[in-house]
Specification:
2 copies of one chain form a homodimer.
Chain A: H1 2-5, H2 8-23, H3 43-59, H4 79-95, E1 101-102, H5 104-108, E2 111-112, E3 116-121, E4 124-127, H6 139-143, E5 148-149, H7 151-156, H8 163-170, E6 173-177, E7 202-205, E8 210-212, E9 231-232, E10 246-251, E11 257-260, H9 261-267, E12 270-278, H10 284-290, E13 303-312, H11 313-319, E14 332-340, E15 346-352, H12 353-357, E16 364-369, E17 372-373, E18 383-385, E19 398-404, H13 411-414, H14 431-436, E20 446-451, E21 457-458, E22 464-472, E23 479-485, E24 493-494, E25 496-497, E26 511-518, E27 525-535, E28 560-566
Parallel strand pairs in A: 1-6, 3-5, 10-19, 21-28
Antiparallel strand pairs in A: 2-3, 3-4, 4-6, 7-8, 8-9, 10-11, 12-13, 13-16, 14-15, 14-19, 16-17, 16-18, 20-22, 22-26, 23-24, 23-27, 25-26, 27-28
Amino acid sequence: MKRLGRSLNSALLHQSRQAQRTASAAPSQTQFIRTLSVLPSQAGAEKQHKQAWTQHLLRLGLGLGAGASLFAAYGGFSSSHCEQQASAGQTKTAQSGSRPIYSEDDVAEHATKDTGVWVTYQGGVYDVTNWVDQHPGGGARIMLAAGGAIDPFWAMYAQHKTAEVRKILETYRIGDLEGGADPSKQVADPYANEPKRHKALLVRSAKPFNAETPTDALGSGPSTPNELFYVRNHLPVPHVEPAAYSLRIEGEGLRHVELSLNDLKTKFKRHSVSAAMQCSGNRRHGMNEVKKIQGLDWDIGAIGSAEWSGVKLRDVLRYAGFDEDNSDGVAHVQFEGLDSDISGTCYGASIPIDKAMGSHGDVILAFSMNGRTLSTDHGFPLRLVVPGVTGARSVKWLSRIITSKEESQAHWQQHDYKAFSPGVTMDTVTEEDWRSAPALQESPVTSAICEPANGAQLEEGTEEVAVRGYAYSGGGRNIIRVDVSPDGGKTWHVATLDNPGQLPYRAWDWTRWHLDLPLPKDHSGPLELCCRAVDSSYNTQPDTVAPIWNMRGIVNNAWHRINISVRAEE
Amino acid sequence: MKRLGRSLNSALLHQSRQAQRTASAAPSQTQFIRTLSVLPSQAGAEKQHKQAWTQHLLRLGLGLGAGASLFAAYGGFSSSHCEQQASAGQTKTAQSGSRPIYSEDDVAEHATKDTGVWVTYQGGVYDVTNWVDQHPGGGARIMLAAGGAIDPFWAMYAQHKTAEVRKILETYRIGDLEGGADPSKQVADPYANEPKRHKALLVRSAKPFNAETPTDALGSGPSTPNELFYVRNHLPVPHVEPAAYSLRIEGEGLRHVELSLNDLKTKFKRHSVSAAMQCSGNRRHGMNEVKKIQGLDWDIGAIGSAEWSGVKLRDVLRYAGFDEDNSDGVAHVQFEGLDSDISGTCYGASIPIDKAMGSHGDVILAFSMNGRTLSTDHGFPLRLVVPGVTGARSVKWLSRIITSKEESQAHWQQHDYKAFSPGVTMDTVTEEDWRSAPALQESPVTSAICEPANGAQLEEGTEEVAVRGYAYSGGGRNIIRVDVSPDGGKTWHVATLDNPGQLPYRAWDWTRWHLDLPLPKDHSGPLELCCRAVDSSYNTQPDTVAPIWNMRGIVNNAWHRINISVRAEE
């Protein structure tokens, strides 16, 4: 548990140093050509830079990932701005006459904010000190590469690999790496062994792989077919040898336990739960229409439902000695996946202990999905399924479970999957903002229209249209009603719920619904259809997106609206 | 438990018959003057009547109570309509030449829909068969008086006692009671012994007493002073002799137990919980502004916070033998108060067993409020406090606790405190609507501005205004953020939370908040201030009231909006 005691930053820096040492393990015999690294203050230029950046980030709606994949924001940087920035870089180089040459050791000495933060990329040396705090993915993530090569990170977060991002990087160039890029250190593509995916998935990012269920396959049956179930990967997919797999369970109030797959399958009672899984960023596209956000441009398909089977987390924690009545301040259960970045940092998350241990929490360590062994993309051989809680906590390729007094300190728990007031932007967000907003757990009530398709054209004289969709609320709250409007919310019709009456406070599944929606009499021309759900706490959805817009683009649960039209008589 | 097995209707009819028998216990020696009671079908006239009624009900925003006090709707009937209706009544009488005379026994024979439903009032005989289903308080409540005098009911629901309602009643007159009104049966005012109340309370209905906390005393400290705490009574206040008091506990999986106050105070550990209490109808006024609703015209003060002390419900249920692990389908805990109507029907409600028995449910049988013995208005000597759940379930003057497979069948659980789609009105509501909507338990997230006052005039040149208010969410969900807008929701500022960080999933108290809100630069003239809260499930409030309008006017949790203005330079 020592590791938990350390702060995130020091842990990351430690890892960074280790990564760096590994990267430069081949003995370097280069001659030291010392060069003064003092540069004129770039503060003014940086501020301007940041503002332009942020404007672009917000203006662009490309397929951007959360957390680590925030880097994807680079992909959308407009070329006109980039050219401008690239020129600025050239001017700087010209001012210093010819580019200074630095050794790997010189660079390694610039791995903190005090010394300045240098990185190398393909033979170039860059001082990114002033960029650290502006990095859309968080400063801590840049610090992983501080004092060394960013090449392996860009291989991991492949969205960086565009001409646009490269041009921006050049604006930070301070010199060349002695000896140039070392071909022996060329980084292999960490995504070379990704599994094959169904071609109907709507891909929102290739590396890491993120894709959603096509709208017309969404909610058409109780479960989403495994092959069409949305995939949300933060990192390359790990490939696990089942025989070698073991799950480590440790932490406050537990004896350290290692369980093989066979142990898990034979020592515990099997349980199944039908539960929806939803990415926090589902429907981000609607927020992008208000103001652009970095993050994957999910439409309404980053949600699905499956029957998950495995063993109960509470049974496993009890097996490891956890005693609710003598838990001495244990408040969280942390999870780590086998998916890790170049520094060895695993995907991580945590949930409250009450959810984990509650008799009605129904948290499952799942082997299978809709009766079939988990696929690689969905967490083979074992994933967590936390019903009623946002997908980010249902850690895939589960490797470690830790009981603790504190939340997971992972990036995805602390610096992502939180929503702020609409006035908080990448320009203004503070550590206090991140600290004060709780990590998203239970999802708010939401719904979406799956049919008709947005943009559908109806025959002239159409008097009603078949509408169907899904609704879902976190925390086990049932959907008690779905209203659908043919006129932008002026009048409402009540939909029929296809699977009403889930267990109270354990309504983990989505609710599918349908109705034949009467259209305004003798209408031709455009119509705005919208839907909104009410859950068992009588919470309902906000009317519009703008007031709930947030810089990470999560929990967009405003009424879902689509535009259709009825053809006019000819 | 036999009583629970009976249907609501049969139980009510049974009670009605009993009440009737009691009312006519004095031997009647009147001569029978038989008169054919067949009248021409009134269906057409009734339909017109109902429509006019409903229009009026919806148009009027008077101080109307929920449940039993739906009768208050009568109070607002416009005189022009009433005169018209009164004329119609006279015409009918004129048609029959002279009024027929009926005995009490004649009337008693008309106590079902099959025989026709007759009632008497102060010497008049009325056939209200066609009115039963249109009664705003529900047909079952009229059936309590079927075949007998409505005088005691109107004494109980004193809102009927207006010239307007009397005129409407006359339209149903079919004759006179033999011997006229019997002065010996004059009904005493059931509200003659109501306690003294603080004069600062804003009274929304006198009989039963309903009053809210004045806005400027609302949320100004952690607890609401007991004397200014909102009062929501459905019936006359019962006066309880502490020494004679006993609490009866029975039902599925329990041994029958009777506990005195002393037993409760000595056999169980004491617990305190700081919890907000809110009437489901809080902020109904905002719905009335969209479309008029019967029900008390609550502004934002039907909410308060107190420290409640007593014993835990779960401890008492365990004492009575309840075993969660062998509870055999017990799903609800029902409660009855000592407040009852003329037929002996007690106020009743139920909550789910998981809330009652959950280790974090914190349901209290409370003796005291803010360190002082409960006042008569707040349930002396014992009331239920169900944190995170709408006030209607926190039964006052608690007399009986019943574990059961089924919900309470009380009017207030089955035919009130439920919300429908805005298209469902008193005209169109069906039994299926009532059946399909769940009884409100956990409240949705809400908030309100307590200062400045609505309509406040600010000095010219005012650049910012001190704003404060409350926010609350049911189900133990914490308030994580309150946003306040100076411009009707276009821009938002984050408020400071005065009491953040309640226990996760046990955030029973309201959250008070404040900020100095910057006003638009150099602004003069009107401004719309609004606030909205976000809870720990990231649920937030809907933007506007109209789409959540519902015929009972409950759970208005749209953004709270007030209008202020900044004086122009002179």
